[in-house]
Write a structure and sequence with these properties.
2 copies of one chain form a homodimer.
Chain A: H1 5-21, H2 27-33, H3 40-52, E1 56-57, E2 66-67, H4 69-79, H5 87-97, H6 103-118, E3 121-125, E4 134-143, E5 146-153, E6 158-164, H7 171-185, H8 193-203, H9 209-225, E7 231-234, H10 252-258, H11 261-269, E8 277-279, E9 292-299, E10 307-314, H12 319-339
Antiparallel strand pairs in A: 1-2, 3-7, 3-10, 4-5, 5-6, 8-9, 9-10
Chain A binds a DNA duplex (30 and 30 nucleotides) through helix 2 and helix 3.
DNA sequence: ACTGGCACTCGCTACAGTCGAGTGCCAGGA
DNA sequence: TCCTGGCACTCGACTGTAGCGAGTGCCAGT
């Protein structure tokens, strides 16, 4: 399977043409639009080899060639350079993100920005609680047997939860509880809290013990178990570009997948190192998303990663452009978070 | 424009058949499927009148009839009874909503429930801050010049905002600020807060004056001006049922409209009394949604209304069923909120 | 190893013909 | 006056045929 340079150039040309025109590309059109220095017949021979190797295929016997998932993969890995962003895009990013007023705002602006720049569906994970630390825990009495627990994370996320107490608790005890809880948990990474919560119960003075036990349950749920991840989504209307040709005519499976937070998290959440990940076609694990590709990366203040963001679109997408945009947006968001 | 009873019955039959079969309905099929007691020829005459009056139309010269927006309107207003919910649906509602753990949870469960029961796109507005009261305001020092302001509303909504102070403020002053702010604002309806915030600044002791001024600005923004409304959405995949026949082949405009919170709020938010509102076709003000209908109603604990919820789908929808479901869900959610 | 030439494939479009659901109209009957 | 059966008509949906053309694979020649 020796693919010489010219065959690779042919593959690159096919991918680029197909991405921009959305139509199967034939040998003649190829030599006209690219300076390959050879005749259509030669290109045809190269194409035959590329097809044999599984990088391209023919939708119909007498149509041009279309890249396969494998072809896109080779293109992304070896044939493309990341496009530098245009100055206009840089300006758009900066303009869009200044003036963000809290975390919700940052996330919403980011996801819309991504959708707008890439013209794909954009997904942004809220800073993961598992990777955050506790900045402050607040207990607000609602009635004598009810507390509102408010947890503020260092990433700016705020989670709240109603706590039903086993019995009436006087106000001064709430103050004690608040102090104890904060002494123990403030500054701790959320993933480290379970043992701390345990000692919290054990060390609690006798009269607070039952209340603290209840509180501990809710704390664990809130800090660790609960829907700890949140997701923002934008740009679903972009799925309708390319007039139903992408996604083999039905948006249904895509829309269904996008409604499942679990799916989205798996797609953009598990970025291990700070690299950009590209999932092409059925490289992702979801049948519904076989016709889609995902470009995602992690973001966070400084070098730490607190969440993921990315875009989803047809396999026929502008990978170099989208990779560049996703990276740039992630970097800007990271800087923004670092300021808080 | 005298429409006698039989003509109305014909219209009703046309709407019902078309909604269930999705195909233009002809005179012969009509008399077969409904006991109208007359011949197809008679029905044809009635149809001619209904068409002249604008209640139905023919997609093509030799096809059956299809209701117009006006026809649906008449059907909804005068020809349909609200369907009672099936026991299965009642059970589904109850099962779905028990175990909701906080407001976010309630809203999410509700919107998914609505989407599932109606098989349409569901929209739920979070309890409007304008109609809520302040339960508690919390100030959490982040650094000497930064506070996190957390506002807890009686509806369970929690809003947070970062406050950049004009200068360093010692911890005991924060305690004073917290006390002053809560004394003045706790229990107040959010819509009534602006003058209260004003007096808060005026009455503040001199040494707190600058800090309080800054805080007041943020308070006003948070309580009144900011994106005070939030929206949850589910079931967009349901738009693809009816295989592109609804929405004249393009989901684009619909998806675009659904991404605009402002649009959704106008659709489901402005329910004045506790009545159910039905917007058919271009009765709504958005060009993008000409091919869609919206069924919405308000919800809230007891008789007060704190937000809206509803469903959006093709004009060809099961109005009686959807109206019943929307009402029932709104009532259950109201009860749930009343418990907190 | 590349190229020009050539026969072949096959999807797309246009066109003609048939079918049938559905209509409007009219004359006759309760 | 209102309803009904009958009848001619319309027109979209479907089918089959034919021609076109983009694109290919192969081969002989350079």
């Amino acid at each position: 399977m020796g693919l010489d340079d010219r065959k690779l150039a042919v593959l690159r040309a096919i991918v680029e043409d197909y991405v921009s025109t959305q139509e199967p590309v034939g040998s003649k059109a190829l030599v006209e639009r690219h300076q390959l220095g050879v005749s259509p017949a030669t290109v045809r021979n190269d194409m035959a080899v590329l097809e044999e190797e599984g990088y391209i295929r023919q939708p119909h016997t007498s149509a041009g060639r279309v890249p396969t998932d494998r072809g896109y993969r080779l293109f992304v890995d070896r044939l493309s350079r990341v496009k530098p962003l245009s100055p206009a895009e840089r300006r758009a990013i900066e303009r869009f993100l200044v003036g963000a007023v809290d975390l919700d705002d940052v996330v919403h602006r980011t996801v819309r920005l991504l959708a707008q720049l890439t013209r794909q569906v954009a997904v942004v994970q809220y800073p993961s609680l598992a990777r955050s630390s506790v900045r402050h825990l607040e207990l607000v009495p609602i009635s004598t047997t009810r507390l509102m627990l408010v947890m503020i994370a260092d990433t700016g996320r705020v989670e709240q939860r109603l706590v039903e107490l086993p019995g009436p608790v006087p106000a001064e005890n709430v103050t004690d509880l608040r102090r104890l809880v904060n002494e123990k948990l403030t500054g701790a990474r959320l993933s480290d809290t379970p043992p701390l919560v345990q000692t919290l119960v054990e060390e609690a003075p006798a009269e607070l013990r039952p209340t603290m036990t209840t509180l501990a349950t809710v704390l664990l749920e809130t800090l660790v178990e609960r829907h700890e991840e949140r997701i923002a989504l934008a740009g679903t209307a972009n799925l309708t570009r390319g007039g139903l040709l992408d996604f083999q005519g039905s948006l249904r499976p895509i829309l269904e997948a996008l409604e499942e937070e679990v799916v989205l998290l798996k797609l953009i959440g598990e970025t291990e190192p700070s690299t950009t990940r590209v999932l092409i076609g059925d490289e992702n694990e979801f049948d519904n998303l076989r016709a889609a590709s995902v470009v995602s990366t992690g973001y966070g203040p400084g070098a730490t990663i607190v969440g993921g963001l990315g875009v989803l679109g047809p396999t026929r997408m502008d990978y170099p452009g989208n990779i560049a945009t996703v990276r740039a947006v992630a970097r800007y968001v990271g800087e923004l978070l670092a300021q808080n």
